[in-house]
Structures are given as C-alpha cells and as structure tokens.
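USER: For my understanding, would you kindly supply a protein sequence with its structure tokens?

ASSISTANT:
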Amino acid sequence: ITAPSGGLEVKTKNATLFELQPEQKVLLEEVRGNIRVTTDGVNHGVFGMIRIHPTSSEHDMRIRTEGKSGQYDGDLSVRVIDGKLQLVNYIGLESYVAGVVESEIRPNESETMVRLQAMLIRTYALGNRDRHHAQGFELCDRVHCQVYQGRTRYQASTRKAVRTTAGKVITDENGRLILAVYHSNCGGQTTDASAA
C-alpha cells in the first residue's frame, strides 16, 4: 500500500502505529494467521487486524496485490481469513457509485447513459448490501456483485452524473427498490426482463 500524497494512518485495533509519508509504502503479509507490517525494511510487528485511515478526504491510497492494483478512497480494513489477507474498503455510497460506473461502462458514454447507470448501481448496492454479511463486508468487487476497481479516473462526466443523481434510486409502484440487474456484454442477444 502506497500513500501518493501521504496522510495515511496505519492503525491496529487499539492504537495508531505510524503515518505514511508521501510515496512511502507499507507491506502487509500474512504470517500464521496474523498480519506483519513492514515499511522500508522495518518490521513494526504482527497484528490481528490493520486499519488504514486517511487523515483527510484529499488523501487516497494505492493498493497492489498479487492479482490487481488500484487507487482507493476511504478507509481500508485488513484481516486474515483462511490464510489470506482480506481487504475491505469503507467508502461513502456516492464514491462507490462513481467507482463502479467507471469500472462497468465504457468511457465516453452519453450523459444520459452515465446518469442511468449511476442510478442502477446505487439501486443495486442498496438492495444487496447484505449479500456478503457472513464474510464481514457488504459487496464484493467482482461481477458477483458489481465490478469496483476503486478510484479509476473519476472523469468530469462521471462526477457530474453521480452528483446530479445523488440519492436517486429506481423503485417499483410500491416504493420498493427494483432488482437492478444489468450486464456488461449481452453477446448480441437480450431477452425480456420477465424471463429473469
């Protein structure tokens, strides 16, 4: 984990260990069911849980794992589950919506499409936020829920679409959230929603 502009506190359950300086990296490794924390070759100890907290909303983090990398806003909680590090990103709904919009649709879509996608994403997120409750988080970052790659680009069109639709969801005639499913590729064929 890297702090591009600094301002990230590395915390344990009970205390702050240190604050990352600009471009400083912290390495988190699983060791016998716990997390070893290292910076610049210095071992800070082994802990059951680590939390990375930005000191202001202007600070974000770069995360690189064996499988992927990305830039993320908000807090990060790290614990060990089944011998692997589990990273959970805690962010506000609208930041999540912006990240999913840019992960799920092509760049340069029409303004109407981006606004509609933002409402679908928000509706799906609120209607399914307990989907992974048993695993200790709300939604995964894969196609099982919605693809979320953190702060991808946050283009002006995305920010505008999320801002102008903030809080808006799609409901049925009884005011209940719809099942807001969508796909990134239909293979050239679709079917009526009633067949789902």
